[in-house]
C-alpha cells in the first residue's frame, strides 16, 4: 500500500510543471518581500498576496488533476514512409475538461530526423477535439521509431501545467521514394509527363514489330500498304505494327563508397535507388521487363528482368535493403556477371559517379565491353556545391584559387561525357535532384529511336 502511494506521488510530481507565469509572479514576490524589509505595510501586503497566490496554485491543481484521463491523443500516418519526400503525419487531440484549455504538444520523432525542437500549441474549448497536421522528410531508408506523445495542459489560470504522456510508440519502415514513383506513373497513364519536365520526343525510324493485316482506313500510312494482300482481296490492305515490347531494362547501381556522398540530405545511392524504382515502374508500364543489379567490389544482388505481377514489389524490397559497403567499385566483376546472367541484349542504366577523367579511364575497357553486348547508359552526377562556387564572384585571392579549382573539376565532368561519347557509350550528367526526370527522358528517347 505504501509502495502504491509512493508511486502515485511520484507520478503526480512527474506530471506537474510550473508555468512561466508562476515564475514571473514568484520573482515579483521576491522583490516585494525585499522592499518589505524597509516598509512594513508592503511586507504585510506581500504576505496576503502570497496566501492568495498559493490558493490560486492549489485551485489550478484541482482543476487540472481532478480527472485522470482528461486528454486523448492519437497519431495517424501511412503504413510506410517514402524516402526523400514530405510524408504527412496527423495527431488527433481531444480534451475532456469542462473549461477552456491551452495545450502544448510534443511528438517524440524518430532519432534519425534529429528534430527535438518542434512542438505545436493550440487552444481547445470544453470537450472539443482537433487534428494537428505536419510532415516529416526522412533521408535514410530503414526502421524509424516514433515515441510517445507529450501533451502539456494549462487551465485558464495558467500558473501550472499538467503533462499527459500518451503511449504511441510505433515502428515504421522508410522505403525508396514510392511517392515519386506514383507521381510519374499517374503522369504516364494520363500522358502528362511533360508537366514534370519529361520531353515529348518525336519518333524516329521504325521501332515496331508486325501485328496484323487490316483494311485500309483514311489516315493510315500509305507506306504500310501490303500490295500482295491488296491484289488477293481486291481492296487496299495495310500492315499494322505495334511498338516493340518486352525489352529488358536493368538498373545497375554502384553501392561503393563513392555513392555515399550526400546532397540535400540524401546520398547519391538514395537518389539512384529512388530513380531506379521510378524507371522500373515506367518500364513495366511501357510493357518492358525491369530488373535490378547492385554491385561494388562484388555483385551484391541480382533481380532478373521480368514483367510478371509482383515484380515491382520485389524491386521495392530489394532496393529497401541496399546499403553502401564503402568498398572500391570493381567494374570487371560487373562485366563478368553481366556476361554470365544477362544473355539478351538489354538497356543497362548504370548509376555510378566519376570525379576525374583518370578514374573513368581505369574502367573504360570494361565499359566498352559491356556496351558491345548491351545498350549502356552511364549515369553520373554533377557536384552542385562546386557549381555554386563556379558561379560565385571572387572577392580576394583565396576565392580566386577556390573558383579556379572548382572550374577544373566541373570541366573534367564535361570531359568524361565527351570521352564516353567517343567510345560509343551514352551518358547522363545530371544534378542529383534532376536525376529521375533526365533518366526517364533518356529511356523514352531510346524507345523512340528504336535502340531497344
Describe the structure.
- This protein has 452 residues and is α/β, with parallel strands linked by helices.
- The protein has three domains: 12-175, Immunoglobulins (Immunoglobulin-like), CATH 2.60.40.10; 178-202 and 244-449, 3-Layer(aba) Sandwich (Rossmann fold), CATH 3.40.50; 208-243, no CATH class.
- The protein contains twelve helices and 21 strands.
- The strands form six sheets. Strands 18-17-14-19-20-21 form a six-stranded mixed beta sheet, sandwiched between helices. The protein has a five-stranded antiparallel beta sheet with strand order 1-10-9-5-6. A three-stranded antiparallel beta sheet has the order 2-4-7, with no helix packed on it.
- A hairpin with a 2-residue loop joins strand 15 (262-263) and strand 16.
- Helix 2 (20-36) runs antiparallel to helix 3 (40-65) and helix 6 (268-285) packs parallel to helix 12.
- Residues 203-207 have low confidence and may be disordered.
At the fourth CATH level, what is the homologous superfamily of the largest domain? Answer: von Willebrand factor, type A domain
Q: What is the overall pLDDT average?
A: 87
The CATH architecture assignment of the largest domain turns out to be: 3-Layer(aba) Sandwich
Instruction: Tell how many strands the DSSP assignment holds.
Output: 21
- Helix vs. strand class: alpha/beta
Query: Compute the gyration radius: what is it?
Result: 33 Å
Strand order of the largest sheet: 18-17-14-19-20-21
Which spans of ≥5 residues are poorly predicted at pLDDT below 50? Answer: 203-207
| Number of contiguous helices | 12
Output the CATH topology of the largest domain. Answer: Rossmann fold
- Which geometry do the CA atoms define? elongated
CATH class of the largest domain: Alpha Beta
Distance between the termini: 79 Å
Q: Portion of residues in helices?
A: 25-40%
The share of residues in extended strands comes to: 25-35%
Number of domains: 3
Largest sheet: 6 strands, mixed
Amino acid at each position: 500500500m505504501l509502495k502504491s502511494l509512493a508511486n502515485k506521488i511520484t507520478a503526480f510530481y512527474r506530471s506537474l510543471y510550473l508555468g512561466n507565469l508562476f515564475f514571473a509572479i514568484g520573482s515579483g514576490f521576491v522583490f516585494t518581500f525585499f522592499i518589505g524589509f524597509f516598509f512594513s505595510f508592503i511586507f504585510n501586503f506581500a504576505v496576503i498576496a502570497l496566501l492568495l497566490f498559493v490558493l490560486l496554485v492549489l485551485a489550478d491543481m484541482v482543476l487540472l488533476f481532478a480527472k485522470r484521463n482528461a486528454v486523448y491523443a492519437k497519431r495517424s500516418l501511412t503504413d510506410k514512409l517514402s524516402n526523400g519526400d514530405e510524408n504527412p503525419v496527423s495527431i488527433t487531440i481531444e480534451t475532456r475538461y469542462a473549461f477552456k484549455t491551452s495545450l502544448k504538444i510534443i511528438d517524440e520523432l524518430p532519432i534519425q530526423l534529429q528534430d527535438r525542437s518542434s512542438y505545436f500549441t493550440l487552444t481547445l474549448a470544453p470537450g472539443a477535439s482537433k487534428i494537428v497536421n505536419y510532415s516529416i522528410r526522412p533521408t535514410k531508408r530503414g526502421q524509424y521509431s516514433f515515441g510517445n506523445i507529450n501533451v502539456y495542459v494549462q487551465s485558464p489560470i495558467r500558473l501550472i501545467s499538467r503533462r499527459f504522456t500518451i503511449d504511441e510508440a510505433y515502428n515504421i519502415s522508410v522505403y525508396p521514394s514510392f511517392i515519386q514513383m506514383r507521381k510519374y506513373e499517374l503522369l504516364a497513364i494520363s500522358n502528362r509527363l511533360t508537366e514534370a519536365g519529361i520531353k515529348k520526343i518525336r519518333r524516329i525510324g521504325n521501332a515496331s514489330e508486325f501485328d496484323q493485316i487490316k483494311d485500309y482506313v483514311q489516315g493510315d500510312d500509305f507506306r504500310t500498304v501490303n500490295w500482295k494482300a491488296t491484289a488477293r482481296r481486291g481492296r487496299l490492305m495495310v500492315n499494322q505494327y505495334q511498338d516493340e515490347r518486352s525489352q529488358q531494362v536493368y538498373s545497375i547501381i554502384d553501392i561503393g563508397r563513392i555513392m555515399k556522398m550526400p546532397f540535400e540530405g540524401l546520398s547519391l545511392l538514395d537518389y539512384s535507388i529512388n530513380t531506379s524504382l521510378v524507371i522500373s515502374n515506367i518500364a513495366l508500364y511501357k510493357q518492358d521487363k525491369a530488373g535490378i543489379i547492385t554491385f561494388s567490389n562484388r555483385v551484391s544482388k541480382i533481380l532478373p528482368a521480368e514483367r510478371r505481377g509482383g515484380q515491382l514489389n520485389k524491386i521495392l524490397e530489394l532496393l529497401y535493403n541496399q546499403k553502401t559497403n564503402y568498398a572500391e567499385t570493381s567494374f570487371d566483376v560487373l562485366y563478368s556477371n553481366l556476361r554470365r546472367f544477362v544473355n539478351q541484349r538489354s538497356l543497362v542504366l548504370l548509376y555510378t559517379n566519376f570525379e576525374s577523367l583518370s578514374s573513368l579511364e581505369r574502367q573504360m575497357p570494361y565499359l566498352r565491353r559491356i556496351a558491345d553486348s548491351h545498350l549502356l547508359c552511364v549515369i553520373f552526377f554533377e557536384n552542385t556545391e562546386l557549381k555554386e562556387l563556379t558561379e560565385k564572384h571572387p572577392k580576394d585571392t583565396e576565392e580566386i584559387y577556390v573558383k579556379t579549382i572548382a572550374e577544373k573539376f566541373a570541366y573534367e565532368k564535361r570531359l568524361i561525357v565527351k570521352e564516353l561519347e567517343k567510345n560509343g557509350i551514352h551518358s547522363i550528367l545530371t544534378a542529383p535532384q534532376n536525376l529521375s526526370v533526365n533518366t526517364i527522358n533518356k529511356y523514352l528517347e531510346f524507345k523512340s529511336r528504336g535502340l531497344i
